[in-house]
């Protein structure tokens, strides 16, 4: 992943672009085509974790040629990388029963894998007919829990990025590209 110059008019805090809109759209279309083929004739329930995954979900579901339903969860992590047993707490559960359903968990990014590991355990206990994962960004360097990822958009470097759902303290999610932050912005946020 090469860092390109930010587009004209980008916020001054954005220092570069890791993935532009075109690259993201192309890959999302490919993932959508693969999912459409794999789930042909079967309804797929797309489960997304609020909030970052929404942006990828919105584009991915429109790239799937077939029946889909959406459902959402929200969670709060109260563990840490050094104490992963701290776990995750569900603050919003699914609205629908997934027993016997073909469930595809849609995430914007997997980092340590702890969130998804917990989530898959919860979902598996509800006896779906199948349970798979689609993730746009796989930042594997800090992986603790090894997870099977059926649909992966991109491997990404161990870089702090914002945009297309990824945020810094709630900001920048709505950038249509995946961008890097300037040293100044990172320092301001206590990340450098
Ligand atoms: C991100 C992402 C995953 C999680 C992955 O969410 O959407 O849920 O982090 O990290 P992990 O693999 O280390 O567990 P975040 O906590 O940033 O919340 P957000 O979706 O509201 O931005």
State the gist of this model:
The chain is of the alpha/beta class. The chain is 23% helix and 30% strand. The strands form two sheets. Strands 4-3-2-5-6-7 form a six-stranded mixed sheet.
Total DSSP E strands? 9
Query: Helix count?
Result: 4
- The CATH topology corresponds to Rossmann fold
Run of helices and strands: EHEHEEEHEEEEH
Break the fold down into its secondary structure elements and pairings.
Elements: E1 14-19, H1 21-38, E2 44-50, H2 53-62, E3 68-77, E4 88-92, E5 102-110, H3 114-124, E6 130-138, E7 151-155, E8 161-162, E9 178-181, H4 183-188
Parallel strand pairs: 2-3, 2-5, 5-6, 6-7
Antiparallel strand pairs: 1-9, 3-4, 8-9
Helix pairs in contact: 1-2
The chain binds 1-O-pyrophosphono-5-O-phosphono-alpha-D-ribofuranose.
Question: What does the model show?
Answer:
The chain has helices at residues 21-38, 53-62, 114-124, 183-188, and strands at residues 14-19, 44-50, 68-77, 88-92, 102-110, 130-138, 151-155, 161-162, 178-181. It is α/β, with parallel strands linked by helices. The chain has one domain (21-156): Rossmann fold (3-Layer(aba) Sandwich). Helix 1 packs across helix 2. It is globular. The structure holds 1-O-pyrophosphono-5-O-phosphono-alpha-D-ribofuranose (PRP).
């Amino acid at each position: 992943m090469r860092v390109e110059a930010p587009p004209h008019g980008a916020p001054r805090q954005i220092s570069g672009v890791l993935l532009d809109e075109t690259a993201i759209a192309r890959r999302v279309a490919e993932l959508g085509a693969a999912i459409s083929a794999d789930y042909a004739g079967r309804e797929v329930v797309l489960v997304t974790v609020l909030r970052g995954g929404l942006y990828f979900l919105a584009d991915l579901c429109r790239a799937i040629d077939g029946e889909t339903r959406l459902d959402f969860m929200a969670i709060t992590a109260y563990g840490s990388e050094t104490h992963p047993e701290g776990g995750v707490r569900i603050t919003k559960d699914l609205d629908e029963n997934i027993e016997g359903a073909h469930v595809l968990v849609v995430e914007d990014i997997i980092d340590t894998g702890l969130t998804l590991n917990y989530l898959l355990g919860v979902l598996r206990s509800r006896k779906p007919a199948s349970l798979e994962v689609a993730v746009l960004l796989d930042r594997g360097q800090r992986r603790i829990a090894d997870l099977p990822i059926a649909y992966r958009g991109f491997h990404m470097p161990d870089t702090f990025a914002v945009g297309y759902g990824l945020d810094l303290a709630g900001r920048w999610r709505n950038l249509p590209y995946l961008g890097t932050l300037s040293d100044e912005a990172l320092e301001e946020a206590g990340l450098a």
